[in-house]
Specification:
- By secondary structure, the protein is an alpha/beta fold.
- It has 3 domains: 4-131 and 255-447, P-loop containing nucleotide triphosphate hydrolases (Rossmann fold, 3-Layer(aba) Sandwich); 133-250, Domain 2, N(10)-formyltetrahydrofolate synthetase (2-Layer Sandwich), CATH 3.30.1510.10; 463-544, Formyltetrahydrofolate synthetase, domain 3, CATH 3.10.410.
- Helix content is 36%, strand content 20%.
- It has 20 helices and 25 strands.
- β24 (563-564) and β25 (570-571) form a beta hairpin.
- It is globular, with a radius of gyration of 23 Å.
Length: 575
Amino acid sequence: MQTDLEIARAAELRPLAEVAAKAGLAPGDLAPRAEGVAKVRWAAVKAKGVAAGEGGGGSLVLVTGVNPTPFGEGKTVTTIGLAQALCRQGERACCAIREPSMGPVFGVKGGAAGGGFSQVLPMDAINLHFTGDLHAITSAHNLLASMVDNSLKQGNPLGIDAQRVFWPRVLDLNDRALRQCVVGLGGAANGVPREDRFDITAASEVMAILALATGYADLKARLRRIVVAQNAAGEAVTAGDLQADGAMALLLRDALLPNFVQTYEGDPAFVHCGPFANIAHGNSSVMADRIALGCSDFVVTEAGFGSDMGAEKFFHIKAASSGQVPDCVVITATVRAMKLHGGAFGAAAGKRPPPDLVAQCNADAARTGAASNLARHVRNMRRFGAPVVVSVNVFPTDHGEEIAAVLAEAERAGAAAAVVSHVHSEGGRGGDKLASAVKEACAAHRAAGRPFTALFPADAPVQAKIEAIATEFYGASSVEMSSKAAAQLRRLERWGMDRLPVCMAKTQYSFSHEPGQLGAPTGFVLPVQELRLNSGAGFVVVILGAVMTMPGLPAQPAAVAMSIDDDGQLVGVFG
């Protein structure tokens, strides 16, 4: 089969105005940025009622997955392919996905715009810089960081405790050497020396704010509320206190507007914001979802990593901002992933096993993995009230009895339907069964009045929320707070911010905090290392185990195979 890049290059981009017309957008509603790439103008956003929260009555479909494996399960492929399949069936449909971060692009993944015949185009532009949104987020975030240090240098009028500065710096690349650093060295002219850190841009609170904001007024209010430090009296110091919020909003003016592109089959696609689900909330923007719902009868969006990560945060964080819960949840799985979780390849959570071992038929391992890992994902998602459809992405190495075992276990766990998907190799045509199952599930949910049940009341204490997710979702027996986390919790209580939503940051490879605990582990103690307040975004980040908010490069980064030829064409990029 051709590589993703070869498939993308062979595709003929349709005029974006023609694609936009499918979504009821006029040519004047788009602000072109490059060939096949545009921003949706603010006037069009307002005209669609998005700014006022008056998104249309279409069905929202949330695509998530099992705990990821080194193979890749294909959530983005499924999201795009399902939207294409719905369009092929005559529905007004589109997808709303996250923007790629260049950290994973040059690190492990090599690209994040779908794959095969279910990708968004132009994929090279989307993966490399795109419309500059992540650069704008990086600049806005680091402007605030520089204003914190400048305030310390210029007489410290806010009385900031230099040892209690919470606001790091960010970079949209993987660089482990920047996880801990010292700034302000070189004498008084260079500022006040203090410890600092870099996070990857996708983990920035500014990224989370941009994804959750419902308009410019909300964006400015959220930026103003960011807590950057503590003063000598133990009080919170905010971006508003530093008078940095206005300039930050200015840098984010264009970044707030959703990006509009097309799928491989020429269907509408929104690509906007890109928080990581293992260290942030892991969902695309509220703005993109709202305008998409105003344009379509079906909007297919994705949540990052497994359902214990991005999908849980969709329900408890994103839905609180958007007011929109899904009519159907699609859980993406593969036979290969279920065999890994069933023990066929040992405890290799982050390493790809030998191809000949993968190709061996092992229906028992597939059944065991599905009965544990997949079944827990299905049961967890069903608790929120929406029907669950399991989509099994099929690969040439899969055996019929293995596929049958996974489908049977999915239905046994309570999935409304379990179907095979061939959207990677066949595009929308390969998602016909999936699209039909999703439409039936959405209709049933709407007929039932769209029931929704959260795991806990919205005003429950932070600690109660952490314990509920840990025990009821992850399978932990209890939670153990470090002394640092306990002190941070007391500070949240003192500031009256101890009832915010929680954003759990942990490994994506397991339900637990340990990557090697495959399947559906139970009875473990979940360690809470740190609580980071994201008051502008409106949640508390809960650092679990050894999770890092600045990834490092692997031994063989994807970057080493990337270049351009003498005509400036990409070489060795994105598969």
